[in-house]
Design goal:
By secondary structure, the chain is mainly alpha-helical. Helices cover about 50% and strands about 5% of the residues. The chain has helices at about 5-10, 15-20, 45-55, 60-70, 75-80, 90-100, 100-115, 115-125, 130-140, 150-160, 165-180, 205-210, 230-240, 270-275, 310-320, 325-335, 355-365, 380-395, 405-414; strands at about 150, 190, 250-255, 280, 295, 305-310.
Amino acid sequence: MTLTPTRRAVSLGLSALALTGCAAGGAGLVARGDWRAVPEPGFESWLAGFRERARADGISEATLTRAFRGVGYVPLVIERDRNQAEFNRTMEDYLAIAASDERIAMGRAKLRRHRAVFAAIEARFGVKKEVLCAVWGMESFYGTQLGDAPVIAALATLTYDGRRGRFFGAQLMAALRALDRGDTTVSRMRGSWAGAMGHTQVMPEVLEDYGVDFDGDGRRGAWDADPTDALATTANYLARHGWTRGQPWAVEVRLPDGFDAGLAGRRRTRSVADWTGIGVRDMDGNPVPDHGAAAILLQMGPQGPALMVFGNFNVIRRYNPANNYVIGIGHLSDRLAGGPPIRGRFPPDENGLTRAGRIEVQERLTAQGFDTGGADGVIGPASRDAIRAYERARGLPETGVATDALLARLRQAA
């Protein structure tokens, strides 16, 4: 997490990557050897110059020696930077992964295991424990996918590359200061290709500005097996960006017949009384309690679920500005607290399939020997590959697209 939209796109790209495949998302580990350095003209002279800047900034010689020993230019970092995929998942697909049964069950287990820690952090910062647990689950799948890139080498490579050199140079300097403080060691400072670190995947400057030594061991332990400091850092970040204690992030609502969709939008806030006055109700038909200024969000259009979002929705957006990410965090937190799934109907996708239809496509393909890697209704790379293989085997044009026509063909073949 970071402070500006530019930093957000860099530091929390992991969250999008975490939702590209199975429920067990996270930073996406690769073999450590893949992060190897290669000779690069100019890198060594650049590094010598950066070391001088770091010395002038007060970084100790001992830290510089440890941090830059063996550090070189890492091509995989640049490859990841240049090939960040665009993710256009619908809210329905996003929630199918973000609030999967596996992620919910694991999150509830973590809440029980760390009950005292969550309670203490919530008492101090006012952020609901389920929200903190949801961030943990989304960012690193509860600490199981922390990332394996060497942070110093990754940040040095990105700084030298120059495309966003000023930003990454500041992150590299902050990482060196963390080493100088004794927060961690070079070998343990591993994370994403972009330098995001720890259980909740924060950038070095954010750790420096908002990091909390909640367990009192003298270190801001974002890398520790114990998630306490990382969770407290996230709570501190949200609290200092305006989290309102006791306010929900959103409430699912029913809209009156003839609702003007032009009234919806994250920035189109009104009082709850105004929304109530035009017929907006909760899913049980009751007026929504007044939690302050609110907006109606129709993430999947007028035919999809409707959410009345409050100020805390925008606070979560400071962590990541994608609406689907915020809805994923918020809904996962509600499920961790025992809340129900989204009750509104999701419209068919652009290919005419509902989620139930997409699940049926996956099940029928797998039954016919074309493995989709699971049946969750999310048509990801494995499902698209299975569809292409089916189409190829049947002499059809290879599209990799799940359609109502494909479903009809699969039914006929059963």
